[in-house]
Every structure is written in C-alpha cells, then in structure tokens.
Amino acid sequence: MKISRPRARTIGALMTSVALVATLPQAALAQSGSGATQQIDIAAQPLENALLAIGREFGVAVVAPNELVSGKTAPRVSGSLSATEALSRVLAGSGLGVRQTSSGDFVIAGTSKDVSEVLNAEEIVVTGNREYLYRVENAKTFGINLPLKDLPLTVNVLTEDFIEDSAALEIQDLIAFVPGVSAGEEGGGVGHGVNIRGFENEIRLVNGSRQNLDITRSVMTTELFERVEIVKGPAGAEVGAADGGGLINYITKKPQSEFAAEVFAGIGDFGYRRIGGDITGPITNDGKLRYRFIGAYTELQEWRAGARDNTPFYNIAPSIAWDYLDTGTVTFEYTRFFSNRARDRGIYYLEGADFTGTDNFAPREYSVRGGDDFEFNRVQGNRFDLNINQKLGDYFTLDITGQQMDLTADQRTLDFPVLEGSFLSDNVYLEDELTWNGVSRDIIAGGSENRGDNEMTSIRAELQSKFTTGPLDYSLKIGYEYYRGRQLFLGVERLDGLSLGVVLPRDLFRVEDPLPANALESPGEIACPQNLTRQDIQTISSVYGQWIGQLAERFRVVAGLRLDGFENSSARPTVPGDETTLGEPDISQEFDRVSFRIASSYSINSAMSIFAGYSNSYNGQNGITVDQ
User: What is the pLDDT of residue 365?
Assistant: First the structure.
C-alpha cells in the first residue's frame, strides 16, 4: 500500500482518512518555504478549512488524520508569520501538534504514533471537493475578515494566475470574463471605460485607495497586479462616494521573501511588441527586508491597417517591504507610468461611393479622430504608496496607508466634422446616414491642443480588532480617510489659452491633397473660439466603522456606517488668455452624507452560502443628483 503525493502543487483535497492541502502560493512567482514569512489573515473557522487556507497561502502540503481535526474550530490567525508559526497558532488549544517532514510538508498529529501512522500508511482513499485553480479564500477590498464565500455582498476576484493565463494586457481584456461587467466608451482607444450592472464606473481603487480615473483607464499594465476585485452594488459604507453599480479595486504585487524572477517578451503583427520582467527576493538573510521590481513596455496591436504604429505605454514599479518588528511591517511602492496613444475612431465609410473601385472606405487614412503623425495623447506621471501595519497586543492592529499621485496629459488632435453634418458643412449622407449623397465635400479640420495636470492625495488610518466572548467571535474596525483630487485642464492653441476650430478644406476624394504637417498653425479661418481652461477640486473627509459578528458557526452579521464631508468645486480663468489666474468656483457642491450597510450571511455547506442585506451609496454630480 502506498501514499500517492501530487507532483505539482495545484490542487487541494479533503480526504476521508487525512486532510491534504497542496496548492500554488498566492504569488505565482514566489514559492514560499516553511521558514519564509508573509502577511496573512485567516478567519476563525473549522480547523480543516483553516489548514486548507494555510496550505494555499504558503504553497505547502498539510496532512492530518481526519478523525483528529473533524469538529474542531481554529482561532483567527493574522500577522507576518512563517508556515510553521501559522500552523502552531491555528492548532492552539486543540491538543494537536505539527511536524515538518524531510520533503518540506507538514503532518498534524496528537502523538508520535499518529505521525508514524500517517507517514507509513500504504493506502489513502481520497474523497471531497475539487479545488479550482483560480479560487481565493478572502477578498481584500473592504477588509472584512470573512471567507469570500461568506461575504454578504457580491465580489468577483481575478487572481494573478487567471490574469497570467488569460494573457490579458489591459483591463478591457479582463472584464469580459466577469458577469454583469462590460466595456464602455473608450474615447477612440485611449481609455478603458467600464460599466458595472449598467452604471458607468467612475470610482476605482488601487490598494483600497481612491484614484484619479485617468491612471487606471489608460496607463496601468496588468503585470502590476496581484489580483483585481470587482465589487457589485452600492458600497458607500466602505468607500464613501461611489457608483451605484459597484467599483474596481486593483491590488498590486508585493515584495516576497524568497527569490524569484520572470522575463517575458512578444512580437506580432499590426505593430505588436512587448518586453518586460518581474524580480523579487530578500535583501537580508532572514527575509525581513525584501524588494520587488517590475518593468513592462508594450505596443498593442493596431486595430486597422494604416493606423500609426508608434503607440507605446510602459510601467516601472520598484517596491520594498521591511518587517521592522515581528508584529509590524512597512511597505513602500513607486510606479512610473507613460502612454502615448492618439485617438483613432476609424476611417470614413460612404455606402455607394466606391472610392477605390472595390470598397466604400475613403482613400485617405484620416480617422474620425485624426490619424496624422503630429497627433499625440501623452499620459505620464508617478504614484507613491506607503503602508504601515502594526499589531498592538493580542487584539488590535493599526493600519495606515498613504498615496500620492501626479499625472500630466498632453493632447493634440484634429477633428473632421464634415461627415457628421456639423455646423461647418452640409452632410454628405442620405437620410439613412450611411449612403453617400453623391456630393463631393471638402474635409473641414477642427484642431485643438490641450494639457491636463492632475494631483491626488489619499490618507487612511484604521484600528482593527478581533475578540471573542464565549462562543461568539467579533471583528471591529474604525477609521478615518482623507482624499483630495485636483484636475487642471488647459485648453490652448498657439499658446493663447484658446481651443480653436481651424478651417482647413481638403478634398475627401483626392489623396494627393494632404493636410500639412503643421495643420494647427496653418493660416485659416478661426471658428468658434472658446476658452476651455478650468480647475476641478474634489475633497472628501470620512469617518467610518464596521462591525462583524459571527453569532454561530454558520451565521454572521455585518454592519457598517460612514459619514463623509464632500466638497466639489470648479473654477475658470477670469482674464482671457491667462490660464494661471482662476476666479472663484462657478460650480460648487458641499454636503455631508451618511452611508450604511446591514447584511447577514448563512453557510449552507462548505461550498455554498446565502446572504441578504441593504446598502446605499452616493456620487456628487455638481448639484444635479447625489443618492444612488
């Protein structure tokens, strides 16, 4: 009779005679050894489930006779721990011990005889539930210390393994896999609009902190993410101002205590090129000081022939983590991002025009949003993240997070409104808005050049507590959060502070009549002068609390309350041509808002739970509407 061990640690199984855990670690690059430490937070739960969770977290096998662990409950285990330390804590009070084998796996037993029986068993009959590769135990977005299946809200988690296996390069490539989430308007290829349950998603988080939208829409490559969590439904009690459909939280990869490295590269048709790498490991021998460096450069495939080829975006992301105490960790992350992807909304199409004798696409390469090389849409900037996590005795943890981001967006475009029936020209379509009316029209180019400067500051401090009274477990969290976002938009043409339409007639049917390279500076009739310079500032100050009561082994209640002080203002220049002198806010919104959540969940079995609850959210809309 034999013991059959898995050759690759990719599944976990609960056995009739023993419990076996064998999984990939959460970070695919970092194979954690038994002595390596990592930050974990495993909720109080049945002992066999806790052993499974530790196996997944550290990527080790844990074996125990089923009759020893069945019916026992494990306490909550959290902190920066090794696999051995985590197992010792989860077994506290159970009368069981842990022993590591020569292969690096662990045996749970009550006596040395139990250990010998497990190691020398000739046959083990395996039964139980399949463990899926992309399954995760906990969601990190709200810090609710419950297994994912027991959360009283809907959360979809895209794991690092899934992101890598899907070969997704952008957020748009990932969201197609999530029910109820779809791609939205992307502005001609320079953004990543997302709709959640029919609501346009404007609120996005990175490591739980609110972001300027531009950074997550256009310049964050998937190589940075450990996981992506999509929360569906109102979440005002947890994040304050939020869209009614839900929100997205991007969780970045962190430094690991064991060395690992990865290099990737690719090349393909239509201008596709990609190269980058990810390296992580310890700086000190004990692994308490560790680093990570991620770099990625990508030029995506162009979606049509003739589109400009030079459209790069890249991320550079070094980070460092330090366990300054056995109970405290500080993590610093920096990200540099850049993107230059001019708008491109396609080539003109006129049914019946037969431009080339074979099709009805215009012979020019002008897209509805430009297409010449002098166009650009550069987005670049920096993000700094600092997190301090410190345990305060046996019952409390202090978690402090700060983020600072600056972002600059420079854009120069040409619009060709003639084919859309704009005020500058008659339409060239028949009433069906598809068929050419037989009239040759000049292309009217409307040019603009502008710049946007964005800044964001976010600070969050939380005091978390976990305690037990009799048979009941409770979690409590109170916190304060401050957010300030500033967006300064400069609409400029010839450096005079105006965004101008410039009439540049060009015959649509004559390829030999091109636009000049300096189209925006060419002589021509100036149409519709307007000053688009403005500054928008949003400030939110919040206090919040969350209570979780596990009132029975299968039943728990979650209650959350949040008070936000919200202020939204917009100002414009008072002197024509002067973008630096802004007047008083011409649109202002200021109010206090209370958001709450009350919900409960009940575990039917180890794989299924039901929940019910009520929550609300709001989002400032310049005085039009607030509640959702």
Answer: 56
536-246-556-79 Cα dihedral, nearest 10 degrees: -60
User: How many whole angstroms separate alpha carbon 389 and alpha carbon 402?
Assistant: 12
Nearest to 600 by CA among 590, 615, 583: 615
Residues 564-590: what's their mean pLDDT? 72
Task: Tell me which amino acid residue 18 is.
Answer: V
d(CA 22, CA 6): 8
The residue written with tokens 């109102």 in the block is 234
Structure-block tokens of residue 171: 């957020």
Taking each continuous run of H as one helix and of E as one strand, the counts in the chain are 8, 34
Give the model confidence (pLDDT) of 281-296 as tens digits. 999 999 999 999 999 9
18-21/209-210 β-pairing: unpaired
Question: Rounded CA gap, 552 and 428, in Å?
Answer: 71
Yes or no: say if 380 and 408 are a contact pair by the CB < 8 Å rule.
Answer: yes
Rounded to an integer, what distance in angstroms lies between the CA atom of residue 566 and that of residue 542? 9
Reference 155, options 185, 181, 183; nearest CA is: 181
Q: Are 235 and 615 in contact (CB under 8 A)?
A: yes
Higher pLDDT, 28 or 267: 267
Average pLDDT over the chain, rounded to an integer: 75
Count of beta carbons in the 10 Å neighbourhood of residue 207: 21
Read off φ and ψ for residue 598, nearest 5 degrees.
Answer: -135, 125
Compute and round to an integer the Cα radius of gyration of the chain: 29
Q: How far apart are the first and last CA of the chain?
A: 63
pLDDT, tens only, 187-239: 555 556 788 888 888 778 899 888 765 555 556 788 899 988 998 988 888 88
Burial class (CB in 10 A: 0-12, 13-18, 19+), 17: middle
Separation between Cα atoms, residue 64 and residue 51, nearest integer Å: 9
Measuring CA to CA, which residue among 180, 165, 272 is closest to residue 222?
165
Listing from the earlier edge strand, what are the strands of the sheet with 106-109? 13-14, 18-21, 62-65, 106-109, 97-100
User: What six digits make up the tokens of 449?
Assistant: 């050049």
- pLDDT value for 571: 80
**Token pair recorded at residue 60:** 């080790």
| E-only strand ranges, 55-119 | 62-65, 73-74, 77-81, 97-100, 106-109
Retrieve residue 243's tokens: 């869209």
Cβ neighbourhood burial of 291 (10 Å; 0-12, 13-18, 19+)? middle
Question: Tell me, what's the pLDDT at 6?
Answer: 32
> What pLDDT score was predicted for residue 172?
76
285 Rama class: left (phi>0) / alpha (psi -120 to 50) / beta: alpha
Q: In this predicted model, what pLDDT tens digit does every residue of 23-61 receive, in sequence order?
A: 333 333 333 444 677 778 787 888 888 888 888 788 788
Give the Cα separation of 448 and 369 in Å (integer).
11
The tally of CA atoms less than 13 A away on the side-chain side of residue 174 is 29
Angle between helices 83-90 and 47-58 (to 10 degrees): 170
Query: How far is Cα of residue 590 from the mean position of the Cα atoms in its chain?
Result: 29
Q: What gap in Å lies between CA 593 and CA 463, rounded to an integer?
A: 22
How far CA 85 is from CA of 33, 80, 115, 324, in Å, comes to 12, 9, 19, 18
Query: What's the mean pLDDT in 290-309?
Result: 81
User: Which residue(s) pair with 389 in the sheet?
Assistant: 329, 399
Report which DSSP code applies to 580: S
